[in-house]
């Protein structure tokens, strides 16, 4: 099942620090994945001055399942699932044209990966799948050559 990050509003746990809340709000309102430095630039007016402040907040948000790190982009997005993906493999379809990110989980893929890990004795810690391509909206747009 795919979930878009467009116009997503996440429930905010009450125990977030000020910096964590600021970072989560910034990710919530972003049109595309943001690097830690992009986040820092957007939050300088709110008193964040050091990259370490952003990285600490991002680490906690990722640990709590409120945000995801996109490995291939070295950037972050807000989790599209308000209640996380406990026990599920999370995947991301990243559009190379517009930068849109769709988040998805698939029970069959999750089960197959867990089964493989069990059969091979691989101690699975975390699984993230990133697909790169062109989204349906960009594919449907007429090109300049048309």
Please characterize this protein's 3D structure:
With 146 residues, the protein is of the alpha+beta class. The chain has one domain: Orthogonal Bundle (Arc Repressor Mutant, subunit A). 35% of the residues lie in helices and 19% in strands. The strands form two sheets. The protein has a four-stranded mixed β-sheet with strand order 1-5-4-6. Helix 2 packs across helix 3. The N terminus is likely disordered.
List keywords for this structure.
two-stranded antiparallel sheet; Arc Repressor Mutant, subunit A; single chain; alpha+beta; 146 residues
Topology:
Blueprint: E1 2-4, H1 18-28, H2 36-43, H3 51-63, E2 67-70, E3 75-78, E4 90-95, E5 101-105, H4 107-120, E6 128-133, H5 136-140
Parallel strand pairs: 4-6
Antiparallel strand pairs: 1-5, 2-3, 4-5
